[in-house]
């Protein structure tokens, strides 16, 4: 069942989403070579909680931290630990806030220091593909339109779209229906309607799309050891466009 949110629910999702986005703005001001991912996670926890919200990942299905921090060939769900961020790394930071009971979910890829051209191009392609996916969204568009737009942008560059993880409905719960694949065919799948709130969060790999999960049960890495990049927005289906809810300000 796909929830259609009321105006007051949308307002709460918008406020939570803005806080999540501001948290990632803050991450951009503190992330630096030498910082451990655990230190960065502590700063994220402090930022979210001091703004009256709860970090949704902390304790979610046993996840032990306030953010997912995934470096280079780690695709998603990296667990913050004593690893230090290095100059030249691409670092995905994914935060989800619960404010007044409602969820906002967003991720960015940070280019730390002097990032090699291939890594920089991958991060740019991931961002562009997310925005192109978002641009397809309207009242009456199809989920398949999103995936088609994303694939059409990145595959001609030699990059691939991860299959094993998808976007999702979000708002009242962390992960709601529908699943939002980042690959697909135009006109296929669920029809979007005004008042739906979903994420689009393409994970784009430099090499093959295959991923594997490490023994910790969370950390997903590329099978070929090549890089991966991701961006995520929470958005509202609103008439002839999407309103991006995870914006700052
Ligand atoms: N924020 C992730 C998403 O975009 C989910 C992380 S769940 C966790 O859906 F348990 F790994 F934190
Ligand atoms: Co998400
Ligand atoms: Co997320």
Global Rg: 17 Å
The stretches of 5 or more residues where confidence is low (pLDDT under 50) are none
Secondary structure class reads alpha+beta
User: CATH class, anyone?
Assistant: Alpha Beta
Number of helical regions: 4
* CATH topology name: Creatine Amidinohydrolase
Largest sheet: 4 strands, antiparallel
Q: Fraction of residues in helices? A: 25-40%
What percentage of amino acids are in beta strands? Answer: 25-35%
Q: Span between N and C termini? A: 32 Å
What binds here, in terms of ligands, is: 2-amino-4-trifluoromethylsulfanyl-butyric acid, cobalt (II) ion
Task: Please identify, by name, the CATH architecture.
Answer: Alpha-Beta Complex
- Fourth-level CATH superfamily: Creatinase/methionine aminopeptidase superfamily
Molecular structure report:
- By secondary structure, this protein is α+β, with helices and mostly antiparallel strands.
- The protein has four helices and 15 strands.
- The strands form five sheets. Strands 1, 2, 4 and 5 form a four-stranded antiparallel sheet that branches. The protein has a three-stranded antiparallel sheet with strand order 3-12-11, with no helix packed on it.
- Strand 11 and strand 12 form a beta hairpin.
- Helix 1 (7-30) crosses helix 2 (37-50).
- The structure holds 2-amino-4-trifluoromethylsulfanyl-butyric acid (MF3) and cobalt (II) ion (2 copies).
- Residues 94, 96, 105, 107, 201, 232 line the site of one cobalt (II) ion.
In brief, what are we looking at here?
The protein is of the alpha+beta class and 249 residues long. Helices cover 28% and strands 26% of the residues.
């Amino acid at each position: 069942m796909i929830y259609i949110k009321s105006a007051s629910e949308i307002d709460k999702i918008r406020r939570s989403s803005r806080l999540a986005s501001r948290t990632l703005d803050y991450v951009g001001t503190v992330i630096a070579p030498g910082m451990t991912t655990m230190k960065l996670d502590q700063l994220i926890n402090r930022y979210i909680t001091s703004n009256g919200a709860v970090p949704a990942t902390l304790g979610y299905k046993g996840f032990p931290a306030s953010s997912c921090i995934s470096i280079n060939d780690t695709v998603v769900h990296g667990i913050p630990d004593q690893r230090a961020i290095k100059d030249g790394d691409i670092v995905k930071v994914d935060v989800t806030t619960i404010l007044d009971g409602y969820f906002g979910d967003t991720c960015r890829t940070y280019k730390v220091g002097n990032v090699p051209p291939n890594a920089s191009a991958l991060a740019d392609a991931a961002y562009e593909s997310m925005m192109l996916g978002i641009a397809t969204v309207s009242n009456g568009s199809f989920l398949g339109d999103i995936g088609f737009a994303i694939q059409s942008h990145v595959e001609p560059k030699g990059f691939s779209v991860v299959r094993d993880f998808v976007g999702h409905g979000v708002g009242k719960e962390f992960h709601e229906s529908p699943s939002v694949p980042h690959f697909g065919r135009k006109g296929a799948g669920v029809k979007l309607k005004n008042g739906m709130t979903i994420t689009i969060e393409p994970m784009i790999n430099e090499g093959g799309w295959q991923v594997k999960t490490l023994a910790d049960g969370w950390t997903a890495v590329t099978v070929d050891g090549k890089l991966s990049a991701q961006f995520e927005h929470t958005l509202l289906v609103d008439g002839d466009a999407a309103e991006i809810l995870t914006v700052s300000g």
